[in-house]
Description:
Layout: E1 3-9, E2 13-20, E3 23-26, E4 36-37, E5 40-42, E6 48-50, H1 52-57, E7 65-66, H2 81-84, E8 90-93, E9 99-103, E10 106-108, H3 110-129, E11 133-140, H4 146-158, E12 162-168, H5 169-181, E13 185-192, E14 197-204, E15 208-217, H6 222-241, H7 249-265, E16 271-282, E17 285-294, H8 295-319, E18 329-333, H9 340-350, H10 363-376, E19 383-387, E20 392-396, E21 400-405, E22 410-411, E23 413-419, E24 428-435, E25 445-453, E26 465-471, E27 477-483, E28 489-493, H11 502-515, H12 523-546, H13 552-571, H14 575-596
Parallel strand pairs: 1-11, 11-12, 13-18, 15-19
Antiparallel strand pairs: 1-2, 2-3, 2-4, 5-6, 5-7, 8-9, 9-10, 13-14, 14-15, 16-17, 19-22, 20-21, 20-24, 23-26, 24-25, 26-27, 27-28
Helix pairs in contact: 3-4, 5-10, 6-7, 6-8, 8-9, 12-13, 12-14, 13-14
Bound molecules: adenosine monophosphate.
Adenosine monophosphate (AMP) binds at residues 10-13, 193-194, 222-223, 260, 263-264, 267, 334-336, 338-339, 361.
Amino acid sequence: MGKLIGIDLGTTNSVCAYMDRRDPIVIINAEGGRITPSVVGISKNGERFVGDIAKRQLLINPEATIHSIKRFMGRRYQDAEKDMALVQYKVVETKNGDTAVEIGDRRYLPQEIAAMILQKLRKSAEDFLGEQVTEAVITVPAYFTDRQRQATKDAGTIAGLDVLRIINEPTAAALAYVHDRRKSSTIAVYDFGGGTFDISILEVDRDLAEVRATRGNNQLGGADIDRKVVDWLLEQFNREHGIDVSEDKVVLQRLRDAAERAKLELSSAMETDIHLPFLLADAGGPKHLQCSLSRYTFESLAQALFDETIEECQRALQDCRLAPDDVDEIILVGGSSRIPKIQEMVKGLFERPLNKTFNPDEVVAIGAAIQAGILEGDVKAVTLLDVTNFSLGIEVEGRRAAKLIPKNTTIPAQKTQLVSTVVDNQRTVKIHVLQGESPLARENVSLGEFELQGIEPAPRGVPRIQVKFAIDANGIVQVSAKDSRSGVSNAITIDAPTGLSQMEIDQLREEHATQGADVEEPEEVKQLRGQIEKQLVSLESFLRDNRGFLQKKDVFEIEQALKRGRMALLKSSDKGNLDELSMYLARFFAHLADKTGAGDTPIH
Length: 604
Ligand code: AMP
């Protein structure tokens, strides 16, 4: 058996950790980072790049660079429209009504893309630990549905990992908290990441972590905040130049990138400048975007999203009948929880300082590693009592939904309900499994349906059919039905809700294993990149220092060279291309020096 690791498979970034005896350690990836961007780039010949390299090509090749895949995991195409507006790659509908990503003439299921990220993490862990990694605990947002959990588990399997447990991200954060302290308290985990928001209220004790309530929105995250800023930037550009650029994919990706950078800066600064030269060029010449965004304006743009998270916190408190000041500790998780306004609002709600002892990017992976340690028997067991986040039930007469397991029930859980026939001598009943809160069947999520055949003929209402629901510790649902007179039974695990059978998963696993790990940049390419970076920095500083003395057309020429250099640097990982770029920059600088007499400015 190989090593067991804990993985936080995030919308934006992923982190993995393991237990070194009693201590959780974050694993360093091949690029030397503690976090790996959850981004996959696919080249024309089908090669894949994962992590930092892929993130770099996002700007210039957005159609073949897949980010935020977690938003599409286990989602139906018709439900995912809002998320499609947040990405530049093509999302298509599979014949089962699920989502897939289309790059060139190949389709990838979200589970496959997630598997590529998991494979990269697995490889990093194997290199770091010097041993094989075959098993994992993977975290998911508390608000992930059964389909989304199952899709995550399938992604692990495709990546060659035996997923021993799926745990909720806030529960993992609570485990990290309990691991060191072991004192009784009520804690709130406020988890605001790149694509999802969750709030969980937990009672923790020396060796028990019990989730009392959990609420959230798995379609609300940092990317939605960025979108608000992008809309504002589009407005600014339109006001200044009278051009609507909202349909231009490359421009949109540049705006998204600038919006995120501005957002990050506004977590420490009160104002930030956004400068996007050559955003567009038309017959009237190049068009730039230059504006400044204050923290105040940023906060008003995103206020409705911030409010939504606070309302969810209030609902979670109501669910477990607690007042805000009953909560002893507030743990922040996820990159978006770094926004000062968010911190102020959360602190205001709970009337308590925030616990800042944990790194919000790493605490979930650390909790997953602790859960892995518990499963391995190396860490003293903490009993985790998690809850279901949605009610589960079946469709009954009149197209209504009958709840069998109400939301916030502690899992694992089981419930049995007796149902009967609605017409005389009915031989078959259809069991339609639903997830959601509405009394109307059609307003809930359909998890699947199955038929129980061979019921003994009898007047309506006489047969006694036992419908049994079981939810395991991973939050995965199994439903069975049995006619007590004839003894016939049937059962489904809602285990192929994402349209993948075990055989298909095994096939994908083999296919991905033979494709090997993602491509990593050779050392000499890394060095060339470093050299070009330096050349571009020299050129930029030359332009900054001499702008006043240069002719307009020289400035334009330098800006074009810088743009070309930056683009090529982002776009290419090919040694030949990069060599050529470096030589071009050196020649360009020599030509500039000839013209301006700036021969002594260093360029290498
Ligand atoms: P996660 O899913 O936890 O990796 O969070 C990623 C999200 O957090 C992205 O939307 C980031 O833009 C956002 N983020 C990271 N750091 C900060 C920060 N300092 N201020 C605001 N948002 C941040």
